[in-house]
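Dear Dr. K.,

Following up on our conversation at the group meeting, I've run the structure prediction for Tetratricopeptide repeat protein from Duganella levis. I'm pasting the input sequence below exactly as I used it, so you can double-check it against your construct before we proceed with anything downstream. Let me know if the numbering doesn't match what you have in your notebook.
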Amino acid sequence: MAYDLEEQEQIASLKAWWDKYGNASTWVLIAALAAYSGWTGWKYYERNQSGQASALYAELQSAVEAKDNAKVLRAAGDMESKFASTTYAPMAALVAAKSAFEANDLKSAKAQLQWAADHGADEFRAVAKIRLAGVLLDEKAYDEALKVLSGDVPAQFASAVADRKGDVLAAQNKLVEARAAYQAALDADKKNPGRQLIQLKLEAIGGTVPAEKGAA
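The predicted structure tokens came back this morning:
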């Protein structure tokens, strides 16, 4: 096919541009396509994982209703090994821990709570720590319980953590520290539904509950 002079000049310019930039442009395009493909693939993977985890969580709940602790623990183990990145995994661990505790399987209860404390998001981690410390308190593993309760937690759980610390310290007969922990629990959440119980515990170990502002 014959080209006129203007067309030939345009083709020559295109060839020159391609010789200089074409290879790099191709790699940029490939990278962009790969990134998009990876993103869509990941979103599909997430949806698929979430769907499977949801079905497994339903099985776990059925096992809980049947009071089949062994099946509950198996389902929780499958959830943690296969779907650890989903929200269902720490939820399953907390449910399994409760099932194990009620079955008097404290070893499994502690293991599930520890998994949730290690792998769950902040809220799940805080709940797991508080419950695990409660089990350790029952076992008189006081130092271990306090270690579990160390570290930062979301603000909405600060009162519950301080309250649990007070319980552990009171059990150790460290009354000054226990009173400080109970007071911290009261200060952290003025609307805590368990506030009256915390006040009773504080008074029981010689603490004084300050009068609320505006009280007669």
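Two things stood out to me. The chain has a mean pLDDT of 82. DSSP finds nine helices and no strands in the chain.

Best regards,
J.T.
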